[in-house]
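Quick illustration, no need to memorize.
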Amino acid sequence: MKKSKAVAIILIVLVLICGLGYMDIWGYDGRGTGNASDIKLGLDLAGGVSITYQVVGEEDPSETDMADTIYKLQQRVAVYSTEAQVYQEGSDRIAIEIPGVSDAETILTQLGRPGALYFISETDSDGNANYSYQNVMNEDGSYGYEYMLTKSIDELMADGSVCITGTDVADARAVSQSDNMKNLEYAVSLSLTPEGSAKFAEATQRAVSKGYETIGIYYDGRFVSVPRVNDVIGNGSASITGDFTYEEAENLASTIRIGGLSLELEELHSKVVGAQLGIDAINTSLKAGAIGLAIVAAFMIVVYLIPGLASALALCLYVVLIVFLLIGFNDVLTLTLPGIAGIILSIGMAVDANVVVFARIREELSRGDSVESAINTGYSKALSAIIDGNVTTLIAAVVLLFLGPSNVKGFAQTLALGIVLSMFTALFVTKWIMKAFYALGLRGIKLYGKGKDRKVIDFLSKKTVFIAISVVLILAGFIFMGINKSAGKGALNYSLDFVGGTATTVDFNENYSLQQLNDTVVPRVEAVTGSNVQVQTVQNSNEVIFKTSSLESSVRTALENMFISEFGVNSSSIQTETISSTISNEMKRDTVIAVIVAILCMLVYIRVRFKDIRFGISSVLALVHDVLVVLAFYAAARVSVSNTFVACMLTIVGYSINATIVIFDRVRENMANAGKSDIVPIVNKSVTQTLSRSIFTSLTTFVMVALLYIMGVSSIKDFALPLMVGIGCGCYSSVCLAGAFWVILSEKFPAKADK
């Protein structure tokens, strides 16, 4: 490489870091337009709109109908944010909290009145028109043509003109298909319930017999589509076509889905709520992240010298790039604590990829290679481990993104984005920076470090001890769960997200900031209720919502008296409501299914890449071990199990599988070079060769999370603490257990080639 090209590479990287960093902070115009403040944050970090609906027409709706309505609403409001929350209040109310938005009126207009959907025949049994195309005046005073009813809904229901209602629709999806001319078009695919299928078959038969009449789709006081019936539809599946864009088809499908709820709802009230964690949580997290990155960069430079400096620059580029992309994707991505977990994991994997490469470079230098040759060979030999480790984690992220419920999609989005970026910076940016430094004259072997021959550590001789320690830890977790449950405290310390609780809304006589509430009011609420507290402020008012565990009547009274006596609140300004969990049974089910599918997909990938299913099974056993040990920690330490619990566990799964893959990649390589030698010394050698990588990667990631724990607010501490345990456990399992599992499986189930 010529010096001019090397200088150009260094300058380009520095300009990108400074330029993107400037835009991330001050925006593309220097005035704050398009900067990091435009990243859409979740309810926990920034607040949003809260809407409460009341069930119409049923005084005591069934639990099944309420659960079905909540689940379908959750799917509907995911259009606004994957982190939106839907939960039950009392017996007949449903609350929706949508982060990252502040215009309640717009949201209400777009949502309409859930459950008010009707499919209406063009004419009644006597041939009279049920609707007509009329010239009507719009809200702005202009005129335009649209379909209008000629009768009331009650009259249409009475004379049988309403073919089906929203409850007869099982699902509605935007799809792409080919028209009669083989051109691509967008349409809405409808699936009907068995009862709806029978009614719709009769209605379409009648429409065809009357000369292919239309069936209007009427929602919340207006027609959203009036498609013509071209054939009798008797199989319960219909397609609505037209000159749709994909967005128009998706909007229509979404409207039909929300109109097809089990219950009809009407708005009770709406408000803009503040962040649950507050601006302090964001600021301290940013400071912790900046300090952590500085420590990691310094560590890499001290340990790896010139390669470390190259990786530090690449890591800086990675950070400004991911912030830049989070700004760019703010329409589809909402950043929450689980999303931050995805970024932390991807940063750890970016560091890991560099450490794997640098270890390889040092090995080549110790064999007498030149620096230039060692760099090329090091990247070549490390490539398979980096790709396999990142792709397995990326598979999990993609599966969670498509199959997981809304509460894990934010994690999956940032993780997938981070993995792609980390691979780019580690495999290309770091490499070219290092080559540029070499071309500029930094060629001394001492500047790159030379690997030392290490005595092989006999890890497998202690495999029985390692496995016994793990079994004891896991069993201890189950014992703690049993003790906690028998004591009436619950096996785990489930938060409101899982078990629901009580929401107490208080209208104070003065306006309290979130910091003031956390310092003065929250400790008193916790003292009276004996519960952890989630706090939300309401914009442009003195109202504050305190969410606690379920409170008995006597405790509710004591809490009310405390607000009256200590804060001068009027008793009429205090409202108490029982709320359900924000994580429904359906969401738990979807999460479990998505995780199982992700693990199966990872198994298939490892089987294909390693040509040995025992590697895949051993990897899964190691990650299951890590999850169970962390679960034991949750039980023993009574750490709150909140919505970040799922993200924490998924982060540990991704971290564990990546660490194990690196070791197994070295086992595969050493086996290929050693032929049919005894596998025990091969595994010991492989673990020893990758030991520094395992320790350094775990250490750098641990530092990032530890700073979040030290500097973060209580909710962040509840997230960071088990994650630190998981990082340590992941290092332990990959070094001490994964290879042992593979050896045991190889001895118990030898492959044909081994016999």
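The chain has a mean pLDDT of 83.
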